[in-house]
Amino acid sequence: MRYSKITVLLIAFLVFAGCTTDDPGQGGNGVDKSANLKTLGTSATDLLSSEKFTSMRIELVYVNGHEPTQKTIDNLKRFLQERTHKPDGYTIFKRAVASSGKAPFSIQEIADIESEERTAFNAGDEIAVYIYFADGSNENDTSTKIVLGSAFRNTSIVIYGETVNNISSRLNAPDKSTVESTVLNHEFGHLFGLVNLGTPLQTDHEDSSSSGHCEVDGCLMNANVQFGRDLIDMVDNNTTPQMDDKCILDLQANGGR
Among 31, 68, 87, 254, which has the highest number of CB atoms less than 10 A from its own CB? Predict the structure, then answer.
């Protein structure tokens, strides 16, 4: 099992937050789900290019009380339009589900929930992505390190909604939409195969101390994204961290924008 982290520093609170890129293995029955139950990064080209799939369908499932904001949805669609080629467009549909009662979660429990709740799978020339906003935290959280999200299969993401809510409610922290968008875009970057997780490097910019992440300071895919005063200054106009040119070049070479 492979782990990596995106570290979020809240200066005033000395809290660290991260992402993991775990793979719990394949599963499922009935509908052919195999194309959506592969290793992280294996669908990078399919997500980025229009060669096989000309549209993208995103199933966004959330537990009541952890619904992403409309601004987060809008930011996600804009991010996908900027980085992928899908001439037939993007469909994002969301729905509420009951709490599993399993928090704090292991990545296998998140995968089990996906098996129960996911309804969107690749069909024809449309590729499907599943996103789950969970009502709890990751089981590996500590007093100094917390996990905000995980890209755990080739088309699967979990966002730990309770953790996002807790961070965004702190004094001087970024608002909920900014935190959600940063984490969600970062995890999509992993689905796109960044960094060196299925999309080949065009230049050597993988962080030697945090595999799967970019070594360039300030890049969306960097392992250290600061959510303290400096970032608050950066998001005055409702912006989120952007990908560095080196990550963008990787995506472009693999069929993206």
Answer: 68
